[in-house]
Amino acid sequence: MSQTSQHLAADSTTKQTENGEPNVTNQLTRRPRKTLTARIDPATRLIAALSLVAALLVAISPSKVLADAPSGEKVYLDIEKDSLKFGFIKLTDCAPIVIAKEKGFFEDEGLQVEVIAQPNWKTLLDNVINGNLDGAHMLSGQPIAATIGFGTKAHIVTAYTLDLNGNGITVSNNVWEQMQENDPALNTPTPKHPISAKGLIPVVRQYMDEGKKLQMGMVFPVSTHNYELRYWLAASGIHPGMYSSTDKGGRTDAQVELSVTPPPMMPSTLEAGNIQGYCVGEPWNQQAVTKGIGVPVTTNYDIWKNNPEKVLGVTKKWADENPQTHLAVVKALIRAGKWLDAADKDGKLVNREEACRLLSLPNYVGADYDVIKNSMTGFFFFQKTDKREMPDFNVFFKYHASYPWYSDGVWFLTQMRRWGQITESKPASWYHETAKSIYLPAVYEAAAKMLITEGYISQSDVPFGTDGYKPATSDFIDGNKYDGKDPIGYINSFKIGNKDPK
Amino acid sequence: MSFLEMNNVSIGYGPSNARTEVLENVNLSVEENEFVAIIGFSGSGKSTLISLLAGLESPDSGIVRMKGKTIGEPGPDRGVMFQNYSLLPWLSVFQNIELAVKQVFPDMKKGERKDYIQNYIDMVSLTSAEWKKPHELSGGMRQRLSLARTLAMKPEVLLLDEPLSALDALTRSVLQDEIIRIWEEDRRTVVMITNDVDEATIMADRIIPLTPGPKATLAQDFKVELPRPRDRTTLNFNPDFKALRNRVTKFMISVNEEAKLLRTSRNLKCPDIEPISLAQVG
Amino acid sequence: MKYKILKALDIAGLAVLDPIVRLIYREEPSEQVRKIILFIGIPAFTFLCFMVLWAYIAPRHTTKSGEVPTPAVVWDSAKSVWVFHERENIKEDDFRVSGEERQKRIAMVSAELEKLKPQLAKVDALLTKAQEQAKAETDKAVAPIMAVFEETKAKYSADSTARKKALTDLAGTIKADDKSARSEYLKKVEAHLAQTDVEKGNLQQIKAQMDAVMNRKHQGLIEARLAKNRVAEKVQFYSKRLENLGDNNQQQKVLAAKESLDKEKEKFSQASGRALYFSALKIQRAEDRLGRIETSTYAKPWTFPAQIVRSLGCVFLGFVIATVIAVPIGILCGLSPVFMAAMTPLISLFKPVSPIVWLPIVFIIVGGFIDDPEQAPVHPAFLSSAITVALCSLWPTLVNTAFGVAAIDKDHLNVARVLRLGFWSRLFKIVIPSALPLIFAGLRISLGVGWMVLIAAELLSSSEGIGKFVWDMFNNGSSQTFAQMFVVVFVVGIIGLMLDRTMIVFQRLVSFDDAPTAI
Ligand SMILES: Nc1ncnc2c1ncn2[C@@H]1O[C@H](COP(=O)(O)OP(=O)(O)O)[C@@H](O)[C@H]1O
Ligand SMILES: [Mg+2]
């Protein structure tokens, strides 16, 4: 029995004794868990823990008591709201939302969902906050930044991670040629990967000698792209600039200046020479290849293997007011994730072509099917001559990808601190508490349990029993080790960036 | 005390450095039910005089009175027929009259009002043009409409500013008769501006010449003591009529010469040519 | 009859057709023919020239970011926008349809799908073949260049190493006091570097050749892809239809929900004790669910025609707001010089502000009044766009109204004075009617400005409409993106023209002199 479940159980028990209603799912997200833990002593906790399973299952299907085995019987939730609006940005990683709609997973939960393209990340967030949207496809950093008040302040939570990986860093042809000169190993049609930013150093120097700075584009100040690009540059000793209370553009001390450019503008801005490189999601790296205006040098898979990318964000208020609807949404999304990552015996992703077909509809991603297909079906063109298999370029469900890990939240917080978006040092406990107030594994687990009962997913698809922290990993381009449990140590392990006292 | 009077009225336009004194020391008194014609050259200040009587302008000095009371704001009791018709171009013939009638007789019933208006339209022979807009009318038709509108207000004083100048001779005489008829019917006070000595002589009880401006003033009046009703066919052979007409014309020409001299003495380069026909200079 | 038609045309602002009608009635045929040539023939000819020029230039102008679409491509893309609209409507219809009609449709769609299956297999095979062929061709063309490249590279690198070695060797032999040898040596190193540059250039050239080969378009492949996409899209469409006619169908869902409710009621009648309570609970929930399904609406995406209608609604709302604000203020300005003086700084300050600046401000203000967008009678983004349109478009009306009122003919005012009209009747009977032609001229400009501004406002506020369509399509970055922009150009242009014509008609209706109102 996990930590969170215990809290939940405690919650439900108190409720049960209060009004005798075994309506546990309604309580799932109503109260901040922390205060409850403080109030309940260990003895009650034990009893509560025992009664949880019973209570939960009773709520799910009253006639059944205690059965984890799939029954195949559909569980209908008491949804508070049946027509929802979700926002998304035209990037392939919105796929789970689109699939849940188009494959009827939302409808199976009794939801009619409108999926509405948003013009940019800022508007998307605003629309979620002001209630125009019920939820949205968000950058992992957005709920975190909003909650801690970097940018617009609003408590946003997430119970579902939409995908891993999926971004690339592209440089202009000119910069690529110079990198090749600097590092002859790159001067072949199929250079060895991962490509570090080492080859970029002389270019950066040259620009600085001329009194200019190399310019690179990313999509949003708290986007994964910003942190990835910074990570990549800093890993080779190039300083991407610091944020501070006075420098909201993050250019203090920069050797390479980063600026926000909307994804669709990236290729043309690159071609126009306003920026010399960018970090963005698909299809905009592949566009640079097809149009011959730039060369993707690396993907975020190479920077950090299986890094979290986008999440489904909703406001805390919405989640509190619509707990059952939230569960229903997460159920549909888990099914969509599973569907997207379904593979045959040989590991071939069987549903991706259909997914691409759907995503290429003009009201969704809308790019050409053939362009979307490249990366979504496990290939990536680095140059015209360099097409590689990247089966994990888009991960939606494998590796417990869609679980809302606290450690993911902590990682983004450490990067925000490293680059000065968080201006003052914080104790380690703050990192954990903040992550826990944003990521809601309890909702995910409750939804997953219902799906197990319904027979859609299996026990092993969900990391039951985890404390919410992924094991420490060194799968980074610089081999640095990340352990979510030690945020301060991690922040201090970088050469470039803020350092904090233990 | 006369019905309508002006005492030492002066008026001018423009700022003090470029001022034109239009009228100076004008004295006029009109008795109730009298028909007065004021005759003068173009630009001498006839319309200004009418504006003063109507209350549209107030004098710089002097007093304008009606029934002993100083004239303040204009009102429908002094029906003005403007020289440039002042018709409302977005309203039809009927509506133009209706606007005035509605305002002056607010209690009139709808059907009654329609007949009333139609009556005036017929009177000025605009019968088939009720729904035409002013821009679809000829100059003469507009003038007739303007007249009909003024008459329809049934004012105590009719102030007519060259009411018939744009009409052809035939219509002109018909309307002259019509105005006289109306005047005789309910005997109202009329001040009419005209540049036609014949017209003045045929219609008015009294003709008052206005000397040419600037600083125009009213000259000695000519009483018209022809018996009414005056028949224009016989009148042409009436020696009194002819004599009066000639006297007035002569007087007008002489004041004009004087003025011309005055003006040439001021500006010697001015060409020595002046229109003689009064009919041309309205 | 003839004059009635002519008059109607005149009022409708379609005076262009005048000579045609006259010609039909055989009035001065030669004169009419001349007019037709002048007013219809010449414009048509210029338009034709424009199209021809466009069709000629477009394919010859390519940038890396894309090609300028030809008229044919634009037409195709307009059609596909329409097809998308129709398909969404059909899907929605399928969701609602019930009874026999549903069965009929299922049969029809299934048959269609059956027919498509072999087609899909065929285009698939064709595509594979085309891909292989293209790959083979490319490989064949690239292989020799690649070989040359590798060979040259190897040779150059060997040469370079040799040269370097020779130079370092030579360095050892140079004596300390041998100045000329030293300067000689410097020259040699320079020559070596120059040689390296040349070699680099040569390699670059070979690479460019390779790129050119890679960039070569394979017509067969492109066509095969298009064919495949066409069939696959159809399959997808029909499969979705089948879903919406089947399990997804509203009526079907209602039936299923009813059935489970009945079952539960059955159970309820036999249950006892604790089970009775749960059964009752279940019935309650099943009833709720049934109610929800019965009232649910199909979540249809916005399609371009729907967005056009919404944009028209938005511009209309904005226009009404602008009119309601501008006309009274304009009248006040015209009536009172004091008020005019008071307003002048505000007007001059706000008039040049761009919609892009207004929108965020309006957004915040509107957002402050609307707590829950779901409950609001109008969508806040829609309202914000409309207000932005109003803010940008009210100026011509305001200025024209003020001017129209201030410039009112003194004679007209004299009439009012003589009639002793009160303030209100003077306003409504004299002042406003007399200013009306100018007010309408202002309104016409305002509507034009509003229509232009609207697209930008919608684009920024992501209020559904043409502006959002533009931004979405731009974000799509698909091969059709540019063509779709051209479609928007024409749609916006044509609607703008129609709005303008409508305003001309109104302008004519209020104008009292025969002044020309339009070109
Ligand atoms: N509003 C005004 N401002 C300045 N001058 C005026 C104005 N109205 C009339 N005048 C001048 O007063 C003189 C008399 O004008 P008016 O009374 O219209 O002459 P009439 O009606 O006899 O032809 C003219 O010289 C004219 O220029
Ligand atoms: Mg005059």
Kindly report the spatial arrangement of strands forming the biggest sheet of chain C: 1-2
Helix content of chain C: over 70%
Q: Strand portion of chain C, in percent?
A: under 5%
Helical region count of chain A?
Answer: 22
Instruction: State the major sheet of chain C.
Output: 2 strands, antiparallel
Strands of chain A, total number: 12
Report the biggest beta sheet of chain A as strand number plus sense, adding barrel if it closes.
Answer: 5 strands, mixed
Annotated CATH homologous superfamily of the largest domain in chain C: MetI-like
For this entry, what is the oligomeric state of its chains?
Answer: heterotrimer
Residue runs with pLDDT of under 50 for 5 or more positions of chain A: 1-67
Span of the ends, CA to CA of chain A? 32 Å
Please count the beta strands of chain C (DSSP E, at least 2 residues each).
2
Helix/strand-derived category of chain A reads alpha/beta
Bound small molecules, by name, code or SMILES, are: adenosine-5'-diphosphate, magnesium ion
> What is the residue-mean pLDDT of chain A, rounded to a whole number?
84
Cα gyration radius of chain A (Å): 23 Å
Main-sheet strand order of chain A equals 2-1-3-10-4
Tell me the layout of helices and strands.
The complex is a heterotrimer of chains A (502), B (282) and C (519).
Chain A: H1 3-19, H2 24-27, H3 33-39, H4 42-60, E1 83-88, H5 95-102, H6 105-108, E2 112-117, H7 121-129, E3 135-139, H8 141-148, E4 156-164, E5 167-172, H9 173-182, H10 201-209, E6 214-218, H11 224-235, E7 256-260, H12 266-272, E8 277-281, H13 284-291, E9 294-299, H14 300-303, E10 308-315, H15 316-321, H16 323-341, H17 352-359, H18 369-376, E11 379-383, E12 386-389, H19 406-418, H20 428-438, H21 441-454, H22 487-492
Parallel strand pairs in A: 1-2, 1-3, 6-7, 6-8
Antiparallel strand pairs in A: 3-10, 4-10, 5-8, 5-9, 11-12
Helix pairs in contact in A: 1-4, 5-16, 16-21, 17-18, 19-20
Chain B: E1 4-13, E2 20-30, E3 35-40, H1 46-54, E4 61-66, E5 69-70, E6 78-81, H2 93-104, H3 110-123, H4 139-152, E7 157-161, H5 169-186, E8 189-194, H6 197-203, E9 206-210, E10 222-223, H7 232-235, H8 239-266
Parallel strand pairs in B: 3-8, 3-9, 6-7, 7-8
Antiparallel strand pairs in B: 1-2, 1-4, 4-5, 9-10
Helix pairs in contact in B: 2-3, 2-4, 3-4, 6-8
Chain C: H1 2-11, H2 18-24, H3 29-57, E1 62-63, E2 66-67, H4 71-96, H5 99-173, H6 179-215, H7 219-245, H8 250-270, H9 274-295, H10 304-335, H11 337-350, H12 355-369, H13 380-406, H14 410-419, H15 423-461, H16 466-476, H17 481-510
Helix pairs in contact in C: 2-3, 4-7, 4-17, 5-6, 5-7, 8-9, 10-11, 10-13, 10-15, 10-16, 12-13, 12-15, 13-15, 15-16, 15-17, 16-17
Bound molecules: adenosine-5'-diphosphate and magnesium ion.
